[in-house]
């Protein structure tokens, strides 16, 4: 009986989640059929689907997807790992935080996409400036939440660990890191979303491959259906990455389940 109730509850939540996407698709189709819009403004869903199949079958879509995923993954994981490590260090050592405070807050105020032209001048049009830009974005989106998470750990927990003979390394790994995980994962989710934004931007302005390049190439040829197809693929990839982050969050922090308010 309980299993049936849980299944019904999950099915109801899933239904609620797909209502809005279904409404958007239906509205799209209605506009195409009855709105008398030119295809260059809003292509038919069938044309977008046909482009997807064409690019998938000839291997071009997979080629661009793999290139973009490689760039995004390297930049995201390297930047996030560095940001988390730096945030823990700054949160644990007050003088180190004071040393980096002005530089860190000044640097994070600069939009990372604004650095793209400078990085292209310095490093050219290869993969390195693209990966570096994604890494910088991921770093700044994770370092501050991690720092705040460490700073907000209850000092009583630290004192209790010290009273039981724990050293600094044990306190960081067993007390500080687990208690900071909600803040860390909040930063990781933002970093994951921003990584795709930065990736598309830098591939559009300087790429000769990748999904951003495919999007810009479609714009130049006024191929709106391929542009929509590319954007949908990017959305699916971004959604999948966010789902993966949330999945690992539940595995890493099982105690967080059911702690949010809901009605």
TrEMBL record:
Presence of the UniProt keyword Transcription in the record: no
GO biological process terms on file: alkanesulfonate transmembrane transport
Alphabetical keyword list: Cell membrane, Membrane, Transmembrane, Transmembrane helix, Transport
Membrane-spanning residues: 12-34, 73-93, 105-125, 131-150, 171-190, 227-245
Compartments, as annotated in UniProt: Cell membrane
Record SUPFAM superfamilies: MetI-like
Topology of this chain in the membrane: Multi-pass membrane protein
GO CC terms: plasma membrane
ABC transmembrane type-1 domain ranges (all copies): 65-245
Keyword Membrane found: yes
UniProt similarity note: Belongs to the binding-protein-dependent transport system permease family.
Protein name as annotated: Sulfonate permease
């Amino acid at each position: 009986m309980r299993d049936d109730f849980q299944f019904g509850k999950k099915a109801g939540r899933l239904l609620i989640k797909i209502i809005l996407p279904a409404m958007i698709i239906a509205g799209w189709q209605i506009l195409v059929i009855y709105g008398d819009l030119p295809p260059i403004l809003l292509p038919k869903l069938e044309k977008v689907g046909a482009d997807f199949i064409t690019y998938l079958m000839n291997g071009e879509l997979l080629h661009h997807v793999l290139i973009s995923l490689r760039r995004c993954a390297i930049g995201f994981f390297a930047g996030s790992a560095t940001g988390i490590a730096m945030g823990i260090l700054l949160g644990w050592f007050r003088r180190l935080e004071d040393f980096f405070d002005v530089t860190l807050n000044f640097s994070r105020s600069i939009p990372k996409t604004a650095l793209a032209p400078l990085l292209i001048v310095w490093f050219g049009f290869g993969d390195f400036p693209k990966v570096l830009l994604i890494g910088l974005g991921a770093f700044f989106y994770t370092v501050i939440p991690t720092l705040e998470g460490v700073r907000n750990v209850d000092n009583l927990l630290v004192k209790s660990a010290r009273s039981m003979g724990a050293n600094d390394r044990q306190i960081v790994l067993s007390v500080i890191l687990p208690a900071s995980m909600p803040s860390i994962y909040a930063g990781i989710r933002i970093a994951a979303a921003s990584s795709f934004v930065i990736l598309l931007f830098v591939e559009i302005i300087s790429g000769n491959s990748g999904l951003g390049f495919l999007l810009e190439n479609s714009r130049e040829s006024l191929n709106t259906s391929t542009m929509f197809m590319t954007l949908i693929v990017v959305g699916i990839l971004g959604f999948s990455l966010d789902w993966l982050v949330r999945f690992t969050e539940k595995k890493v922090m099982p105690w967080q389940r059911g702690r949010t308010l809901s009605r």
